[in-house]
Amino acid sequence: MSVFKDSGHLFRLAALYAVGTLTFLGIRAFFVPRSFGQYGHYRGAAIAEIAAHPVHYAGHQACETCHADVQEMKRSGMHAQVNCEACHGPLAKHADDPSIQPAKLDTAVLCVRCHAASAARPKGFPQVAAVDHSNGLPCETCHQPHNPAIGAGGAK
Amino acid sequence: MNITRRQMLILLPAAAVAWESVLAGTPESSPNYKMTEHWWSMLIDISKCIGCGNCVRACQAENDVPDGFFRTWVERYHVTDWHLENPEVISPDGGKKGFPSVAADDNGKYFFVPKLCNQCADSPCTQVCPVGATFISPDGVVLVDQKYCLGCAYCVQACPYGCRYIHPQKKVADKCTLCYHRITKGLTTACCEACPTGARQLADLKNPKDPIHEFLRTHDVQILKPQMATGAKVFYNDLDGSVR
């Protein structure tokens, strides 16, 4: 103690610093979520939380487990690749509980959404000027939506 | 109950392990899904898009996207011979209600461009986040931890594609999750499920059997803003040079 006279204040400072560091580490351990840094600089548990969001579109595989007849009707037609919920809308609730009835569809809105004539659509895509085409009759008078070629798939 | 010193020494580490698992939070909700086995992307075929807006509506229904905000939207381009560099672009309500019909234009062309988060591998949006609330997951999806997000909107400014917004009620960043809650359960995204022409296809670049590999080899495929070097993973087939 002869070299560093009055060195007591250095030890007090060091002790204070150590206490401060420990306090910081303690608070940090308390506030930083457990999974932070699990995969990277983010909360790893967030991935599972996002993956747990509810599903609204059941997916066509779910539809086909019950509605095999419709799947069969679609198979040979132009709408074979159009998934059920593209027109019928999100029906996961109906898939979970079939007693929940899906809303009735309006072909007057639905068909022209894709098939109204527009130069912006790809050339080969079937398009009609709805007013001239059907003279005001609903589309399903001639076309069965699940297999739309006239005379195919049980069209009237 | 009397516990010997030996029993106590055995019990303590066991209790510590149990407490660790309590602190670690909820386990992964899809037990058969392994993040390291996937690298998600999307393929968009412009030549198949008919501009029906099904994808926009499906996205809003699946993800409760508020009105006037979009995780995906459709733009209609009108490019004339004289204005190749300045196309006329419209997207009324994100294309949610479709587009007005147009008559053929002899001097130009029309086409639709669906847009969504490009799920960039080297994204500017994840780099600017000051708190680590947005990140790319080990399976290649850029996600937002909405419990951690401050709503500072740095990421909204950083995205070169305009794919993020601040949620008007939650006041945190929101964006396309590539329907992470669906793809981890073996389903496709809501937009792909609802697309009637197959113009949008979810693709897994780590799956050697995925048809995307064959498609990328045999078609002229581009990404948006390649000069930004964002590592975008949404691939566009038949994309016109006027699209930015």
Structure in a nutshell:
With 156 residues, chain A is mainly alpha-helical. Chain A is 45% helix and 0% strand. Chain A folds into two domains: 8-51, no CATH class; 60-141, no CATH class.
Describe the SSE topology:
The complex is a heterodimer of chains A (156) and B (244).
Chain A: H1 8-31, H2 45-51, H3 60-66, H4 68-75, H5 84-88, H6 92-96, H7 107-115, H8 130-134
Helix pairs in contact in A: 3-4
Chain B: H1 5-23, E1 40-45, H2 54-63, E2 72-80, E3 88-90, E4 108-116, H3 124-128, E5 134-136, E6 142-144, H4 154-158, E7 165-166, E8 173-174, H5 180-183, H6 190-194, E9 200-204, H7 212-218, E10 221-222, E11 234-237
Parallel strand pairs in B: 1-11
Antiparallel strand pairs in B: 1-9, 2-3, 2-4, 5-6, 7-8, 10-11
Written overview of the protein:
- The complex is a heterodimer of chains A (156) and B (244).
- Chain A has 156 residues and is mainly α.
- Chain A has eight helices and no strands.
- Chain A folds into two domains: 8-51, no CATH class; 60-141, no CATH class.
- Chain A is elongated and about 105 Å long.
- Chain B is of the alpha+beta class and 244 residues long.
- Chain B has a domain at 124-174: 2-Layer Sandwich (Alpha-Beta Plaits).
- Chain B has helices at 5-23, 54-63, 124-128, 154-158, 180-183, 190-194, 212-218; strands at 40-45, 72-80, 88-90, 108-116, 134-136, 142-144, 165-166, 173-174, 200-204, 221-222, 234-237.
- Chain B starts with a helix and ends in a 7-residue tail after the last strand.
- The mean pLDDT of chain B is 92.
- At the A-B interface, α2 and α5 of A face α2, β4, β5, α5 and α6 of B.
